[in-house]
Amino acid sequence: MNETSVGVVAAVCVCIAITAAGVGLRVWFARGRPSLCGWRSGRKSSWRQQYQQQSSKDGSRDSESVHGLSIESALDKLDGMAAQRNYAYACQYAEAHPIDDSTGLLSSSDLELIAEHGANAWQFVADEDNVGVSVRDGTEVEFAGGEQSLVANLQFPNEQRVYYYEVRLTRLAPGTNVAVGVAMRSYPPLRLAGWARNSVGYHTCDGYVYHSHPLDICRKARPAQTSDTLGVGWRPRSGKAFFAINGVIVGHVCTPWAQKRLYPIVSADGPCSLSVNMGTRAFVLSHANMRYWAVAPPEGQRPPPPLYHCASESLLLATSPPSSVHSSSTHDIPPGYDDDHHQHFHSAPHSAIDVNTSRDD
Q1: Cα torsion at 126, 173, 180, 199 (round to 10°)?
Q2: In this structure, are residues 267 and 250 in contact, taking their beta carbons and an 8 Å threshold?
Q3: CB-based contact 67:212 (threshold 8 Å)
Q4: Residue 208, class by beta-carbon neighbours within 10 Å (0-12 exposed, 13-18 middle, 19+ buried)?
Q5: What's this model's pTM, rounded to 2 decimal places?
Q6: What are the phi and psi torsion angles at 240 (to 5°)?
C-alpha cells in the first residue's frame, strides 16, 4: 500500500471518529445533561435515577414515598455531610417554629399599607439568622454565600385568580444556585426554597422544581444563567404554582395549599444579586401585564399626609378660643406660673459675675 492510500484511509477514519463523537454528544444532550445540583441537594445518583423513572412526563409522581420517609431514612439517601446537616437543620427548625398553614386574606393593616404604597408594600427583610445578606429598597437582594432565604413581609392577597412576580438574575457567580418560589411563613432562613416543608421552588443550577423536600422533584425545566428573568405564579383558588423563564412558562405544580397563606420567597447558596419585581414595573411575561397578575397596583392610591407648616389645600376644622391675655409676653408662660415671680424675674437687673473671683486661688 502506497503513501496515498494510507492517507486516504487515515482521513476516512478521522471522519468516522468525528461523526461518532457528534452523534454521542447529541444523544448526551437529548437525554439531559448531568445534574449540576445533585451534589448540592445531596441526592445520591442511584436514588435520583430511580425517582426519575417513577416520575412521568405529565409531572405525576409518587411523592408519598418521599415525604413518608423518616428523618433517618432521608439522611441515608442524602449524600454528603453538608446535605445531611442542612436537612437535619430544616427538620429541627420546622419542629421549633410551627408553620402557619391557615387560610385567609390580608389583614386591615396590611390593606392600608398596600393602599398607600401599592406593590412597593411587598418587601424582603433579612432575618437575624441571615448572614451576609443585604437588601436595598426592599426588593434589591444581594447574597454573599451559604444557604440563605428571604420571605416577603406580606402574603399573596388571595382575592384574584392569579398572582405573579419576577426575579432578574442581575449577577450570578459561577456555581451559585438560586431558588425562587412560594412558601409559608416561618420558613427556615438557612434553607433553599423547595427543600423544606410547605414550599415549592425552582432551582437555577439544574432546572428542577422541588416540592417541600430535596428528593421530591416535581418538574424539570432548563437551567438559568445571568441576566435571565425567572417568573413565579400562584393560583390561590386551585393551589397551583407555575414558573416562567424569560417570559415563557416552563411548568405547573399542583399543591394542597388552596387559599392558604403563601408568601414569595427568594434564596441562594452563593454570591449573587437579584432584582425582584412585584408589579412596580412591566413584567417580561406579557400575559401577566395584560391580565393584571401583579399583587397590587404599581403605585399607592392614597395620597401621603400633608407636610408640616404647609396649609395649602387644607381644610381648617376647628380653632382654639381667643386668648384673654393682654400682654403678648405672657404667651410663653406655662399655665399656673406665678405672675409676680414672672414680673420680678424680668425686672431684676442682671449682675455681672467675675469668673476669676469665683475660683479658689
Answers
A1: -80
A2: no
A3: yes
A4: buried
A5: 0.71
A6: -105, 140
